């Protein structure tokens, strides 16, 4: 995984994406998330796999544009959720404070 992330970051640098406006990159993230939704709606596993990968690529670049890295962001999110309590409601986990 480390090697793949480095390759994406290098690709981004070669394309000068790492210097681009991160609000534009967020639009790419949103576009790719939409493709994930379309894949789920169609039940298309190949499209879903590609879409999830594309989301991760766009998030790696978004983090890079803001002097962060994917691991740092993921660790921050995990630290926030690791002790979270809640329950499943209609197939969705709802945190205790929102119940």
From TrEMBL:
What InterPro entries does the database record attribute to this sequence? MazG-like_dom (IPR004518)
The residue ranges of the NTP pyrophosphohydrolase MazG-like domain are 28-85
> By its UniProt entry, which Pfam families does this protein fall under?
MazG (PF03819)
Q: What is this protein called?
A: ArpR
Q: Which organism is it from?
A: Salinicoccus halodurans
The upper taxonomy is: Bacteria, Bacillati, Bacillota, Bacilli, Bacillales
């Amino acid at each position: 995984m480390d090697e793949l992330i480095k390759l994406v970051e290098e690709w981004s640098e070669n394309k000068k994406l790492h210097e681009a406006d991160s609000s534009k990159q967020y639009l790419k993230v949103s576009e790719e998330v939409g493709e994930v939704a379309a894949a789920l709606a169609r039940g298309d596993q190949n499209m879903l796999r590609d879409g999830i990968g594309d989301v991760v690529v766009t998030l790696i670049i978004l983090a890079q544009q803001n002097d962060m890295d994917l691991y740092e962001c993921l660790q921050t999110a995990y630290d926030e959720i690791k002790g979270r309590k809640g329950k499943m409601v209609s197939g969705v986990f709802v945190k205790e404070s929102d119940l």
